[in-house]
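Thread title: Can someone regenerate the structure for this chain?

I was given the following input by a collaborator and told the matching structure tokens would be attached. They weren't. Posting the sequence so someone can regenerate them.
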Amino acid sequence: MMIFLVGLILLGGYSAGYLAVKLGVPKVTGYFLMGLLLSPEINSFVASDFPSITEPITDLCLAFITFEVGCTLSMEKLKAHGKAIIAVSSLEALGAFLIVLIGFLFLSPIFIDMAGYDILGLSIPFSILIASLAAPTDPSATLAVMHQYKARGIVSETIMGAAALDDAFTLLLFSLSFAVATSFIGKTATPILEVIYKTATIIIGALMIGILLGWIFNKLTNALEIREEGQIIVLVLGFLAAAFGASVLLGFDELFSTLTFGIIVTNFNGNKDKVIGLTERYTEELVFIFFFVLGAMHLKWKSLGEAGGLILLFILLRLAGKYLGTFLGAKISKMPSSVSKYAFAGLIPQGGIVLGLALVIQKDPNFSVISDLLIGTIMGATLIHEFIGPLTSKWAIKRAREVRE
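Best answer:
Regenerated them for you:
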């Protein structure tokens, strides 16, 4: 049955992507819809634990996608726009956090009451935690759209750069918010300095793993003068699995390590054009189909009904925060007007890390009272963000005239 489902995912995902292109929408939207249709909640022949069984596959796909995002951050681009991209990334993440926090502090009690949850006394920690989950952007959907339409230009570079740097800002905001929210629940909060130290350790450790394995990979591919294309793909996937797995074992941020690995390859590998070109041509579509179909199969349909008002509030406030932060970042760094007008639309998708952080909250007994509603809100918002995100990304690059169809 497992092999049959894998075949169904590949063939169904490919067909859905093909139909999506015919309808004028990004392939990834088709992949996502196919995943929703194959959800265990809809199809009895799909085991309820199938999405969790396939987590190693989605982890490897996520490692590959963050590697490709890292490959977009070459020194040449960073020298030209590095400070501007950092400004946009930090402000759009902070903008989403602050706008969602303020909005939820004032409005969430109304929607919590409507949802029928007796947690009004915990609306402050609920607002703090959910605001920290507004900051991250899922670069995988945006990357898929960029590659499908061969987008090139300052808006595309800003979107990918900002999405790539989101992880670091998100981890810091989440760690601090987690500690503050714990104190409101009535438990002993972790000292802020300890939180900062742990966060720095997670990020620096991931950087070291990515740099070390990237250096070894570069030495191997440069010294051996590997010419067979299959060998290069095997080495890339092997090193990515090693970087991701080592980070998980050591408690570091796995996505940051594979992102760093991609940065090292694109900047210091003599065969970088061949390596990146091969992965894009022969591996990318397979990875995208698996990742988006399986990712959509994890989402829960019932979450839309349980927290409908909170989901809508979260989406609208996050959108406003992303727009305001991107606009200010672009203006402060004196980037072209196309960036301030359109780049925010490429930062809409959410998935991957935000779902992982939401599950961290769910596992903590301190938040057992509010975790169900929080998970429902994030799951529902993620479903909508992952569906509309590719469409808004396409709109952004088309309005910026960076599409090379």
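Residues 345 and 392 are 5 Å apart (CA to CA).
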